[in-house]
Amino acid sequence: MNQLPKEMLESQKATLEAMMAFQGTVFGGFEKLVDLNLKVMKATMDEASQKTQEAMGIKDAQEAVAMTSGLIQPSADKAAAYSKHVYDIVSGVQADLAKLAEGKVAEGQKQLHAVVEQMTRNAPSGSEGTISMIKSSLAQATAAFDSINKAAKQAAEVAEKNLHAATNATFKAATDAAASATKTASRARRTTA
Asked: Is 6 helix (H, G, I), strand (E, B) or coil?
């Protein structure tokens, strides 16, 4: 009788610890996002102040075109870098949560296997078929979970590859746009000169 309440308390304690670990992981990710956003805001304000000072010193249209064309590439690079940082933070939190969940699932599977083994030892004669069916179902459920887990990891890898491809395409488009703007500014300087 005393064993059951003790096991329940241990189970509740483990569940509470798991919840605290999940909350800690999520809160840690939130802290990283807040820190990133504060740094980006500070850098943006500093850059806006600097660019405002530069804009006040512009004397002709050529300088304005040159300044404008010089803003395109850094802005695209910064946006892509910011997106990458956010993705890294979110995927890191997701990976940590997945590890915690895998640990809890593995622990649950271990406990379930222990219960089935206990049932097997205490089962009355003639129940071998039922016990065999339970063990087979448990093995199939474990295999299905492993298969789903593997598929989820592969999907995450594909998503990450696609993100990298999209980032590279964005960088290329921004570089091409900056080059085009620079050429236009050069042509404008030559025609006004």
From this structure: helix
Using a cut of 0.85, tell me whether the model's pTM lies above it. no
Domains of the chain, residue spans: 3-192
What is each CA distance from 92 to 11, 156, 178, in whole angstroms? 28, 12, 33
The more confidently predicted of residues 185 and 30 is 30
> Is 74:178 a contact under the CB 8 Å cutoff?
no
User: What is the chain's Cα-based Rg?
Assistant: 30
Angle at 163 between CA 158 and CA 169, to 5 degrees: 125
Residues 25/97, Cβ–Cβ less than 8 Å = yes
Measured from the Cβ of residue 110, the count of other Cβ atoms closer than 10 Å reads 10
Q: Which two tokens stand for residue 179?
A: 């080059």
Residue 103, both tokens = 């640990």
The residue behind tokens 């620079």 is 182
Q: In this structure, which amino acid lies at residue 45?
A: M
Rounded CA-CA distance 28/93 in Å is: 8
Tell me what the pLDDT averaged over the chain comes to.
Answer: 80
d(CA 145, CA 101): 12
